[in-house]
Structure formats: C-alpha cells, structure tokens
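Why do we bother with holo predictions? Because pocket geometry can differ from the apo form. Keep that in mind while you read this record for manganese (II) ion.
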Amino acid sequence: MTGSPITVASGSATDAGLRRAVNEDSHIAAPPVFLVADGMGGHGAGEIASAAVIDEFARLAGRPSVDSEQLHAVVARARQRVEALPPGAGAGAGTTLSGVAIADVDGEGYWLTVNLGDSRTYRISEGEFEQVSVDHSVVQELVDRGELAAQDAAGDRRRNVITRAIGAGADSEPDYWLLPAEPGDRILVCSDGLSGELDADRIEAVLRTEHDPQEAATRLVREALLYGGRDNITVVVVDALSVRSRAESGWPHSTLPTAAHADEIDEDTAPRSERIGGRR
Ligand code: MN
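The structure, written out:
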C-alpha cells in the first residue's frame, strides 16, 4: 500500500514572546512529521540545538509515513549532532522534543508520538481532549509522587527544570506512544511558552472554536502573548482529514475478522492505544 495512511491539514505559528530577545524554539509541520523543539542554553546556543534537531527530522518530510525504528534513528542522529556542537556555537546546549509522526501499522494510520522534556502533545479524538505526553520535569515528578498538587504545578518556581532532554549533558531516551488515528483527530504540539500561559481549559476552548488549523495556531500564540508572553511560544496544529482503516488498506480478505467475531475482536483490542516505551 503506497501513500500516507493519514491525510492531514496543518498550521503552525511561533513568536519570541514579550520578554525574550531570541526565539530558541524550532518546529516542523511537514507530513509525516509535526514536532516542536524548545532549545536551552545561553548566547543563542539553545536556538542552534533546537534548529539542529528539527533539521534532522526535516529529512523525513515527504515520506508517506515513519516507523518507530526510523524515528529512533533520527533521535539518535539529532542527539549526536547536538552533542558535537563546537564551543561557542551551542556546546552544552540542549533541547526538548515533542510531537507526532504519521505511522503505517499494517495499513492503518497511527500517530507515533515522541516526547523528551516539557514541550507537550495534546489530542482531541472522538470528542475527548487529553494531554498525550507526560512532562519530564521536576514538578511532574513531584506531582507523580504526591508531593505537589497538580493545580499548583503551573505556579511552582521549579516549573522550568526539566529532567530529560536532547543534549544538555543528558543521555535520556524519549517516551514513545503509538495511538490509532481517528478521522477528525486534532493534534496540538506546543512549547511551554503556550502551556505556561494558557491553562488546559483555555487551550481546549480555542482548539474547539477555530476550525482552520492555521487559524487555531495563530490564535493560540496570540492569546499566549495576551496572557504575558514570558517565554518563546510555538504551536503546531494537525488535523486528520481522513484515516485509512484496515478494511481499506488492501489486506487479504482472509485476514479480516469475520462478521461473527467482529464485535468480540473489537472489544479485545479496546483501548487501541499502545505504549511502546517510557512511562505514561
Ligand atoms: Mn520554553
């Protein structure tokens, strides 16, 4: 089966914000990859690190889909590239990475989700809004251990301290999730310059109000600026216009469930999301 298993429309927007002179965020919104990287390290080093990582992923643009081995390989190359940055041009710099790639699993369309650090991936699917990624941050660890209330995390002074990254002396692996895509899914990928200014309810409201993905991305960035714009803000919005299902994927008929067993098989496979690494 050729062609992408998910037909998408997307939009993106980024802004340095109102307090920072440099935008150290980088992003890509080019099928099959939709990612945000939030660089860290002074004197422009973070900008170089996040751009280097996104540049590695840009090599995947134009493919119909990406599999988990390919994604692993690009993460590894991106890490080597950041760690090899020469002194004065990003040495010691690091970056977060979050977002989705379009994956083809036995002919069906899936979101292959990746996360390292505290940029975020959210999804609206079948009416439900949820944060897919789990922050790799000190405050998330405190929340997980019951030492900090979830509603206090956003205001905690340690909120910018992340526990995993590409580069920055960290040798940490991303979390990966493989989520079955549904027609009508909307994915949001953002840097903490959005999630730090707008709470989840506000983000959800904008995503549900703005039909066009570019309009949604533009408006989210504008609202983050209105709420203070204390950090660089980057937003990628991806809509699944259509998703290839197994019935359409050209599989031999004999591999499809028979009508008599279809209900039973559906129940066995629900929920269809599958973790393929890290914690959730
Ligand atoms: Mn940031």
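The helical segments are 45-58, 68-83, 138-144, 150-153, 192-195, 200-209, 213-226, 262-269.
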